Amino acid sequence: MEKGRVFEQYRSMSPEDQRTFNRWVTANAVVGLVVSTALVAMAMVGANLERPRDAILAAGKNAPELVATDRVRN
């Protein structure tokens, strides 16, 4: 399609077709917003998630203690 033809086609649609198209665009925008919000929320939760093993390693504790505690939990 040539540049500018989309708007020309939209203007030539009947008012009922324009309303249907507007509803379709709005529905797609809402679905995209929900999906992107969910992805951002999951990324934030994943970034803030710190397991006890990671905290022990960050504190400089011995790794054998860490392995023993992981085996008990699992």
Give a description of the structure:
The chain is mainly alpha-helical and 74 residues long. It has one domain (5-73). The chain has 4 helices and no strands. It has helices spanning 5-12, 15-48, 52-59, 63-73. It starts with a helix and ends with a helix. The mean pLDDT is 79.
Nutshell version of this structure?
With 74 residues, the protein is an all-alpha fold. It contains four helices and no strands. The mean pLDDT is 79.
Question: What general outline do the C-alpha atoms trace?
Answer: rod-shaped
The beta-strand count equals 0
What is the end-to-end distance? Answer: 59 Å
Q: What's the order of the H and E elements?
A: HHHH
Percent of residues in beta strands: under 5%
**Total DSSP helices:** 4
Task: Give the total of domains.
Answer: 1
List keywords for this structure.
82% helix, mainly alpha, 74 residues
